[in-house]
Design goal:
Blueprint (H helix, E strand, L loop, with lengths): L2 E4 L2 E4 L4 E7 L9 E6 L6 E6 L6 E3 L7 E6 L4 E6 L8 E7 L1 E5 L2 E5 L12 E6 L1
Parallel strand pairs: 2-12
Antiparallel strand pairs: 1-3, 3-8, 4-5, 4-9, 5-6, 7-8, 9-12, 10-11
């Protein structure tokens, strides 16, 4: 699996960006996916995830209501629509595989080290005041 992120850039606070992640695998349509970000001096964190069919989505509290994850399985592409951007959103954004499992009445997403080999270069998002 090769993952190529794009769409990052410099934007003013309050602005919007749409990130894309193109996956070079025929298995994309059956694979849960997530968007991660890593800010300078911080660990990589999962900000949004979705099941293989896009029917369930999850967001970190810090981006809930501002970011929207979606996917087009016919195009092997994962998207992240980001709006009301804040300086705290400044980071390199990555997409990667995640695992999805039922937990209670919802879906839980987890990252596993077995997915390390799929990391791409990421796309940088910089939000200025």
């Amino acid at each position: 699996v090769r993952l190529v992120e794009s769409g990052g850039g410099l934007v003013q606070a309050g602005g919007s960006l749409r990130l894309s992640c193109l996956a070079s695998t025929s298995g994309f349509s059956v694979t849960p996916m997530g968007w991660f970000r890593q800010a300078p001096g911080h660990q990589r964190e999962l900000v949004a995830a979705t099941t293989a069919d896009g029917g369930n989505v999850h967001y970190a509290d810090s981006v809930k209501g501002r970011f929207t994850i979606s996917r087009d399985n016919a195009k092997n592409t994962l998207y992240l629509e980001m709006s009301s951007l804040e300086p705290g959103d400044t980071a390199v954004y990555f997409c990667n595989v995640v695992s999805a499992s039922r937990c209670g009445g919802s879906v839980c997403y987890e990252y596993a080290s077995v997915f390390d080999k799929f990391w791409g270069q990421g796309t940088r998002v910089t939000v200025s005041l």
